[in-house]
Amino acid sequence: MTTPAPAFPNATILGYPRIGRRRELKRAVESFWAGSITAEELERTASELRAATRERLAALGLSRTDSAIPETFSYYDQVLDTAVTVGALPTRFAGLADEHGGVDLAGYFTIARGVGDDAPLEMTKWFDSNYHYLVPEIAPDTEFTLHAERILAEFAEAQAAGFTTRPVVVGPVTFLLLAKAADGAAAGFEPIERLADLVPVYAALLDQLAEAGAEWVQLDEPALVSESIDVDRARVVESVAVAYDALGALERRPAIFVAAPYGSLDDALPALAATPVEAIGLDLVRGGLPGGLDPATAESLAAKTLVAGVVDGHNIWRGDLAAAFDRVTALQHLSSAVAVSTSTSLQHVPHDVADEDELDTRLASWLAFADQKVGQVAVLGRGLVEGRDAIEDELAAASAALADRDGAPGVRVPSVRDRLAGLGEQDFARVGYEERVAAQETLGLPELPTTTIGSFPQTTEIRRARARLVKGELSTAEYTGLMRDEIERVVRLQEDLGLDVLVHGEPERNDMVQYFAELLDGFAVTKHGWVQSYGSRCTRPSILWGDVSRPAPMTVEWSSYAQSLTEQPMKGMLTGPVTILAWSFVRDDQPLGDTARQVALALRDEIADLESAGIRIIQVDEPALRELLPLKRADQPAYLDWSVGSFRLATGGAVPETQVHTHLCYSEFGVVIDAIKNLDADVTSIEAARSRMEVVDDLESSGFDHGIGPGVYDIHSPRVPGVAEVQSLLERAAGAIPATRLWVNPDCGLKTRGYDETVESLRHIVQATRAVRASIASPVPVG
Ligand code: GLN
Ligand code: ZN
Fold first, then answer.
1. How far apart are CA 460 and CA 296, in angstroms?
2. Is the distance from CB of 8 to CB of 280 less than 8 angstroms?
3. What are the start-end ranges of the H helices in 263-390?
4. Best exposed site among 291, 387, 401, 758 by fewest CB in 10 Å?
């Protein structure tokens, strides 16, 4: 770039929720899938949403014309968007492309959701958030080609409305670091090897953006902060130079802003500083101010705009605005050009506290959702320009809210704190595994027991009944009656299917965390606080603001009713402490471990009550164990210590006869394998179908020796696996895991699926299991 770069805006955000204040995008996308609206109608809704977002952001204080407003709309996922933009389609989807290699909306969704025997892209957690992205598949010969139409159209749409926005794309290094090697690639091939082939496509994109009038482009490079990526760090750092020296050297391009959310850049910072990029975004919430810089790096940074990510994009607390401002000004020692932003995209938080008319007003005054955070960024940006005095009132108001929160009743409850203080080592352990296996023999389970993960499809009738209960149109007794009917249907269905360990189906749960949050003290729930989890799926995290305790049993009536209907063992179903924390917005005024142990004690009491009610198998779901794992290695041991400890505290009181299960939904075991062993659950179910049982090999080599159920049915897709497919997955698992410890189950709960596909899939699972049991049955003794 030859001309001087345009000034970076004083205040910006890295991204904004795209699902819509009332989940308009979710509804439109799902209607399109159902065939009830056309692609044009879906596009119109999306365009209206983008227009509303731009106007809202401008009203909240981001300027219209200086690239302050990022273009972070997505129909499904930003990584998928990037894959489509650079033409990186897996070969099985090559047929979706038009003659130029581009895909239309229907094709785009097919890659996300699969069709027939063509599995969708794998899905995995985005850094340490609860957002899931689609994993690109890159082969040694993937041909990258640019398809910038969508990005250009969105930029032009904003321009026509009088805005100069900032296009946002996942950066080339992160794109490849998050990708997996396509099936059939030679062993040892790493997608990052393709960087030199990919960069020219980004170069062409930047050229077209410049031509369209974009002044700044944001390239998201969060992978640079992560130490949980399976590529040699030296290679990662080197890739920064390869990519950004090349892009920086382009004749015609917008100014480049590289954002690095979710942590500190560490050794990637000098590498990035040495490239010609004009602005670097630092996450000053997770990472500290960069220190110990060598003179060359300090000199390069002084010539760039440093974008201070000081407003936490990942939580909902109003926080300490004065401290945030101090961090911004501290950054001014490194460069005279400093701007304010959120630490991450705001895609992790709901839209607006003002929508929550039923929230306690005192609690509401401690909170900031996306819109409030945009307001905070704007205030801090104004402080940068006009000086601290100009924003003194806003800083003082935030400090007052913080002090109010600190002294409010319920934030610290002495009885909860005393119980925690009295815990000893014995509270965290059960008797040995062998002894438990012997005690649990009376459960009378066959080899390869079949079970499900807990939830059955949440039908429209179930949701309608809950909505009517909330509106007061159904009495609690009527609602309970309907849920009991549903439980009975689910129990009979499982009996008919021939499953071994039954579940009650969780119809009474709106959400596996919110259900408990509503019954525990210390939590609040929101009405419209939805955040995108993946694609069109959203969750509504609860707010964990105070000390946690259990006023009354939470699941015992449902589970014992379900058990009363059948002779088969009924699994009690609880959500574990780590997952309750991970999928809530958690207080930030004490260590997470302390909060987790409070939740664990409440669950421990629940387990004791379930045992008294005759429940002999209890599953404590911890699907988020891996997700909360800190990205920096140095932080991991402490995390694994408190997370595993809280699970053990929750389950440590169970008698040997009680079979404790846990469920985890991801397949990259790697770093957490020891933690999973240390949970000491009798049986662990884990996602495995989409990754074709890769997890089984990890397990085999790790010496895991408790019960294990690798999922054989990918419930994230509407596809029904055939008997032969399930059987081959099971045979693969049985080759690695002894039949005495192998369980058979879907990847995850069934609540998002429909009944037709669920019943058919479960029938195939039972059939496949019978076939595998027969083929591995011990030979009949002779004589
Ligand atoms: N028991 C839960 C269910 O089946 C587990 C869901 C999950 O792991 N996310 O819905
Ligand atoms: Zn799961």
1. 62
2. no
3. 268-273, 295-302, 321-331, 361-364, 370-386
4. 291
The pLDDT of residue 776: 84
- Return phi, psi of residue 303, to 5°: -95, 0
Eight-class DSSP state of 670? G
Secondary structure class of 714 (helix, strand, coil)? coil
Q: For residue 305, what pLDDT is reported?
A: 98
Q: Does the beta carbon of 453 lie inside 6 Å of ligand 1?
A: yes
CA distances from 740 to 231, 432, 498, 500, 720 (A): 36, 17, 19, 15, 27
Amino acid at 577: P
| C-beta of 663 in contact with ligand 1 (< 6 A) | yes
Contact 42, 28 (CB under 8 A): yes
**Helix (H) and strand (E) counts in the chain:** 27, 21
Tokens of 30: 């799902």
pLDDT value at residue 783: 42
* Beta carbon of 318 within 6 Å of any ligand 1 atom: no
Domain boundaries of the chain, sorted by first residue: 65-406
Q: Give me the residues of the chain with pLDDT under 50, please.
A: 780-783
Residue 778 confidence (pLDDT): 55
* Closest atom of ligand 1 relative to the 453 alpha carbon: 4
Q: In this predicted structure, what is the pLDDT of residue 1?
A: 66
Say which CATH topology domain 65-406 has.
TIM Barrel (3.20.20)
Q: Measured from the CA of 455, which atom of ligand 1 is nearest?
A: 4
Question: Positive or negative, the Cα torsion across 526, 529, 533, 537?
Answer: positive
Core vs surface per residue 365-393: b (16+ CB within 10 A) or e: ebbbbbbbbbbbbbbbbbbbeeeeeebee
Under a CB-based contact definition with an 8 Å cutoff, are residues 745 and 451 in contact?
A: yes
Three-state DSSP at 242 gives: helix
Ligand 2 centroid – CA 667 distance (Å) = 11
